[in-house]
Amino acid sequence: MTNSTITATIDKILNQTEKAILSDISSELSNSHQKLDDSVSTLEAEYDKIIADGKKEADKIEKQIVGGSDIEARNKQLLALESSVNRVFTTALEQ
Length: 95
Hints:
Largest sheet: none
Order of helices and strands: H
Shape: rod-shaped
Number of strands: 0
Low-confidence stretches: none
Mean pLDDT: 92
């Protein structure tokens, strides 16, 4: 083999290797883009679930607060009623 034949063979191998590497890089880049695109929808779904769960928890806490306030108001009404009944009985007993 002459030097030019060896050089041509080496150049051919280098070109084939370069094309194979570039093809692999391009393929992996496409795969990476696809994985990112797939991840976006998954992340959006997880985000929506977190927001929905947060809203449910906030609603639950709000109901507890409102319920607690309603109970407190009802207790005050009952205490006022009890006080009025006691005064009526006390007045009736005194007469």
